[in-house]
Automatic annotation (TrEMBL):
Protein name listed in UniProt: Peptidoglycan glycosyltransferase
UniProt keyword ATP-binding present: no
Organism, as annotated: Hippea maritima (strain ATCC 700847 / DSM 10411 / MH2)
Gene Ontology MF term list: carboxypeptidase activity; glycosyltransferase activity; penicillin binding
InterPro entries: Beta-lactam/transpept (IPR050515), Beta-lactam/transpept-like (IPR012338), PBP_dimer (IPR005311), PBP_dimer_sf (IPR036138), PCN-bd_Tpept (IPR001460)
One BP annotation, GO: cell wall organization
Amino acid sequence: MNRVRYWFVVFFIFASFLAVVAKSFYIQLIKGSQYKKEYLNKLVRTITVEGKRGWIYDCKGRPIAINYPVFDLFVDPKYFFMLHKKYSQDEYYLEKEKAFFNDLGKVFLINKKRLLGILYSNPNSRFIVLKKNIPLDKYKLIKEDDNFIKAFGFVKHFRRFYPDGEFSSHVLGFCFSSNKGAEGIERYYDKFLSGLTMKEKIGLDVYKSRVAIKPTDGLNLKISLNRDIQDFVHENLKRTIELFQADKGAVIVMNPYNGQIIAMDSYPFYDNNHYSRYSYAFIKNRAVSDAFEPGSVFKLITMSAALDSGVFKGNEAVYCEKGRWRLHNKVIHDVHRFKTLNFEEIFVYSSNIGSAKIALRIGKKIFYKYLNRFGLGRKTGIDTISETKGIVKDIFNVGDVDLANMAFGQGISVSEIQLASMYSVIANGGYWVRPHFMINLFGDNSTQGYKIEKRKILKGSTVNKVKKILRDVVVYGTGKNAALKDYKTAGKTGTAQIAKHGKYQKEYVASFAGFAPFDNPRFVVVVSIFNPKRGGFYGGSVAAPLFAKIMEFVLHYYGIPQDKN
């Protein structure tokens, strides 16, 4: 009997052991991954994290768009109540909790009553954001607080900052609070600058364990903008606007050979670090988004079409009607009462009548051929947003009066960047080049450069003749205020009436577009000042002096050898 009992006890113990082993095998090996997953799900919260946005640098490698850290304060209500229950009899913990609530109120103005309301309304929640976009100094005050409770925590992310502020705001644009590009280069290159969005698990247990993954950061962007020249342009555009009490203004400095934009600014200004304070009238980049009737700076097209087509040789004389000419129902005026001018003089002294007669002689078919070659009526394709294509009438709706008006820059609208592209053709020897900002995109393991786009549109002989005319405009004609002491400049003035509601007003756009040095042009500068109300309104007196000031600074800045004569 004792033997039977013995073996029964042995069998019972052995069977119990096998049952425990089998259960352990079932829990750890068969169901282990499932139980582990359920356990972790109770301890962790999955949140969305995003890689850092790439920085933007100027042509010298100086940062002009950077990131700075900000923090979101969150609380885990379930874990808070676990701690509160565990230490409900601990006076030290309860005093610490009370002090921490007071600290939150002082630093973040979070009302204790409201905070408790959030906690008690969501007792089983694992993640509630209490305060967003906390700066680093306030983050440290709480994070390093001796009373800090581990049921609270911070999520770190980054916001955009622009060291140059309003000086380069129209070019760079800005990002929304979500760190997505909203304007300018920030928006155009958003998909490259943005970091990849990924999921991250944050442990919220008593040990504050954290399972982290490193998100992929966005690419950095180097652009052709030179911060020194940009700042100089900005300050002097501002002075010119104030001097002439103008409404708007725009300036572009461009490399005519590769299309790089060295500087671009427009007025009114705005600070992209505080973009929400401004209406879109301040935010828009008028150098690319505004189309306007350019006036006599557009005569570059007329002279180029006339010479390149072979209809004019450049030595013809045209009778300019003593300053007043009726064409059908339209009367065209010149500022001065010219009689007969030769081809060059028509543009040097800016005769509208002479320009109109030249355009009518070459005809609208040839004229439109060269509008198309210069890319007018369509976007240049510059790498920013909101570019206008300008306004060019359908050729089938163009009569003699329309063609005559277009010959001297009325009845047709262009943008400032289109003017810069036009004058670059003459400066670089006859090539249309696509304007752009990008030099390269680069990351840890990759670099992507910009491919220059250019096409030949004018004969070399045409370019040489047009260059000489533009030089004489500065020496003898309407552009004398664009002359420099150390360098030969060339360009064209423009003064155009502003049309509103179909009627021309007593308001003007004063422009000057040109290049230097004359023998080997390095830069194109275009200036347009809208509705100057004091001190004159002609391009030669309003825009040409600013052109000269900017061009002189740029040439000396880059150490361009001075002209001997």
